Give the backbone structure.
Amino acid sequence: MLSTTLNMPGCEARGWVVVDSMVDGLALGGTRMTPTVTERELAHLARAMTQKLALVGLPIGGAKAGIAPVPGAAVERRTVMRGFGRAAAPLLHGGVYLGCDQGTTYADRQLAFEAAGYDVARRAGTTRLTVGWAELWDHMADITGFGVAVAVLGALRASGARTPQRIAIQGFGTVGRAVAGHLAAHGHRVVAVADVRGTVEDQRGLPVAELTALTSGDGTIDRTRLPAEVRVHGPGQAWLHVDADVLVLAASAFAVDEDAVPAVRARMVVEGGNMSCTAPARRLLRESGHTVLPDVVVNVGGAAATGCVLAGLAPSDLPLPQLSEWLRGWVADRIARNCELVQELSTSGSADPVAHLLASHGAPAGPPGPGAPVER
Ligand SMILES: NC(=O)c1ccc[n+]([C@@H]2O[C@H](COP(=O)([O-])OP(=O)(O)OC[C@H]3O[C@@H](n4cnc5c(N)ncnc54)[C@H](O)[C@@H]3O)[C@@H](O)[C@H]2O)c1
């Protein structure tokens, strides 16, 4: 593992890039910008990237970058992104692709790349697309949620469910909204969604499109314009107690810990976010008969689609709609297959099906080891 602190003069921010693994000279991960991000958090996320990319069979290692602005700093966002780009330039040019993650946008990424003199579309080995990268990822903004929905639909089919299922979703951001939209489009009933301010619930089914239109870019639902029949719960964990068949976790890490497990009503728990359950909670859920769809298997859509283009596996001659369909098909096939394998391993008595699956792909299981960065 390579973990490096960036020198970003004039940015009033700390920055790091962690490379968990390189494969064929390439690593991939996003850049997270939060006031609390740490090098250690990045090491865990970079390890998860290694695992996700290995599980979909891409010859790319895992990385993650982080920017922690000093609280109250008056430096403009674009100055920070340019400073980050200049500092990370040797890594970008050396094969470490750093896309968007929590707290950064496509426009931020573009500023960083320009400051680094880096153009991913011209990188040797990358698919030469006939569409622009910005246009493609704008069209594919729902890809991670799409992949999560594919996993849920497959698991429901495998469980024999034939009727519309009740879905509760914690987190109504990029991932949560896309999961809600895709599952509703398949006839399932989204009965509750939660954002940072609380949970909104309607057991008859929430109007997903209407709710999405009432939601800001950061995933906050406007309570003043909700339909009258919707029940509004305050902050807290109402989403955990809602009557539902499937609980999709798409907010922050460790949303479900051991203490929360007895309260989980849904028989299927889906880690749409990274590390949504603690490891003991995941084990307890399985032991108590819940189906758990794990993060490194299901929330890989964005990483997998980006990796497919970076590794030159995507076709170069397709117009946008067909390219998007091709990438969605590629992602859906891998996620569906890995979910089936996890289920088969579970059924045959594996206590840790994901570790087995990772081992069969030659990928490291579990968190980064003692060499990982410590908090400073
Ligand atoms: N966006 C992606 O492509 C992608 C890919 C892989 C993994 N992830 C992970 O998925 C998770 C969600 O990502 P996103 O891009 O949708 O984030 P986002 O920032 O767009 O949305 C987060 C949502 O969670 C809500 N939230 C925050 N704290 C909450 C709490 N305590 N209770 C209930 N809701 C809460 C927010 O209000 C918001 O609705 C994150 O863990 C992210 O790292 C995202």
About this structure: The pocket of nicotinamide-adenine-dinucleotide is lined by residues 102, 144, 170-176, 194-196, 218-220, 250-252, 272-274, 299, 302 (CB under 6 Å). The chain has two domains: 2-118, 143-301+334-360. The first strand starts at residue 2 and ends at 6.
